[in-house]
């Protein structure tokens, strides 16, 4: 009898351990997305790719450089899809014409299990036209499409500006800082050009210089680092805010010895 009871106990222990191991394996096999600090604004399905799509942002879409964080899930298993490809297709439909906008196709980030990309909306939604954001998803050998309406608002302060450089229209958008604070902050801008209504390639061969100014106080700041091109038309540097308030970041764009534009700036207040 004692031997029988011992066998029963050992069987129960092994069964419990097998359940625990199975649960652990399931947890490892089914990673979760991390959306802390983000808000889900859209969801739907990429028909043909058997993939559910969720779109997250840090704030409502606006005229400027919008960071999009996209979660993909297998429609059958509901597991996170980690090896897909996403192509963004922003489109403004106007009464007499349509046009696209600059964008950065999403790349998967292992830390969050989200695909991070961006779109530079160059005008607001309204009477002039309506924005949609199309996604072409390639997942496990299947390709599907989906599209979402985007209500794009004009921000209180300018976050993208444009100018003509010869026959090319250049767009410069503020990328960071997202949450400015006193001290040295990451500072980045994205530069694109329009070569057609559907083609807005990155500009990668400019030199960017920044001059921070506090217009209400009449001073600038030391220890700034001019942005340099990293990838996808994004130029990364550093800006030093020595105190809170309104800061004006003057932008000078050069190509070789030629000054392309030095008349624009971004206002940042915190």
TrEMBL record:
- Any keyword Cell membrane? no
InterPro entries attached here?
Answer: YtkA-like_dom
Pfam families in alphabetical order: YtkA
Where would I find the YtkA-like domain in this sequence?
A: 169-251
Listed A to Z, the keywords are: Signal
Q: Which residues form the signal peptide?
A: 1-21
Note the superkingdom of the native organism: Bacteria
* Protein name in UniProt: FixH family protein
Organism, by scientific name, is: Rapidithrix thailandica
Q: Lineage in the entry?
A: Bacteria, Pseudomonadati, Bacteroidota, Cytophagia, Cytophagales
